[in-house]
Amino acid sequence: MRLSLNQITTRRWTLPEVVAGCVRAGIGAIGVWRESLAATGVDDAVRLIGDAGLTVSSLCRGGFLTAVDSAARRTALDDNHRAIDEAAAIGAQCLVMVVGGLPGASRDLPASRAQVAEAIAELAPRAAGCGVRLALEPLHPMYCADRSVLSTLGQALDLAEQFADAEVGVVVDTFHVWWDPELFPQIARAAGRIASYQICDWITPLPSDVLLARGMPGDGHIDFGPITAAVRDAGYTGPVEVEIFNQQVWDADPDHVLTDLITRYQALPA
User: Fold this and answer.
1) Integer Cα distance of 149 and 66 in angstroms
2) What are the pLDDT digits (tens) for 212-225?
3) Phi and psi (nearest 5°) for 267?
4) Average of pLDDT values for 92-115?
5) d(CA 132, CA 168)
6) What backbone torsions phi and psi does residue 55 show, to the nearest 5 degrees?
7) What are the domain boundaries of the chain?
8) pLDDT tens column, 192-245
9) Could you please report the per-residue DSSP string of 49-103?
10) What's the angle, vertex CA 237, arms to CA 162 and CA 136, rounded to 5?
């Protein structure tokens, strides 16, 4: 299967437990989160993942690059340099970049987007030298203020195209982009730049914490077939990573979650 499990989907599992769960379920790839990686230790994680024969589809996450204070900005950049090193160590196919929202009381979106561009210009050569591809992830506009000033695939591509496609790509995450009337032209434009394809569903009503609004494929409103076909036609042949933030999913038995997830994935249009 091309299916990859982003480990946040089974949040209460440690990285060793996620690896063991994927092996039991026959899932050949994982998306790793830095917090879990730190808890395990990079060297131990490299051995663990390698011994299990798993591919690392992504490392989540770098970014949060919009601090105005020079010291805070330097701290963020240094942390992203460490994230690049971690992604290289575990052989991640990309480092997912959630670029950050408006800092403090700022309302200046153009300035924040300019800061992101400057930061990516610093990080991209270092990442390329380490064999790591930065993957800009546009987030749904409801996260613009606090998480990402890149809200559309078009905006992410405008920035990514300032760099070589092997250095900076984009993430197509169905949860964040399914609503966009320009989605299909932008996916076609992204040919050669899609570094990660992530799927989950958009469920309603939205929970009070909108971070937890992601559903299992098939439980919501997204028509996955046309999006998957467009991503394929744009030349993407990598893992299909399922990333779900949902309290009910997190509370369920993780092994049962994986069984359900595989069934849902296999039922999706190819």
Assistant:
1) 9
2) 999 999 999 999 99
3) -85, -10
4) 96
5) 9
6) -90, 145
7) 3-267
8) 999 999 999 999 999 999 999 999 999 999 999 999 999 999 999 999 999 999
9) HHHHT-EEEEEEEEE-----SHHHHHHHHHHHHHHHHHHHHHT-S-EEEE-B---
10) 30
Both tokens of residue 203? 């469920």
Closest by CA position to 176, among listed 218, 117, 222, 234: 222
Q: Running DSSP on this structure, what letter comes out for residue 147?
A: T
In one letter, which amino acid is 165?
D
Mean pLDDT confidence for 14-22: 98
Tens of pLDDT, residue by residue over 157-175, are: 999 999 999 999 999 999 9
Q: Are 14 and 6 in contact (CB under 8 A)?
A: no
Amino acid code (one letter) for 130 = C
CATH 3.40.30.10 applies to domain 3-267 = no
Q: Give the residue ranges of DSSP H helices in 130-239.
A: 153-160, 174-177, 183-189, 224-233
> DSSP label at 148?
B
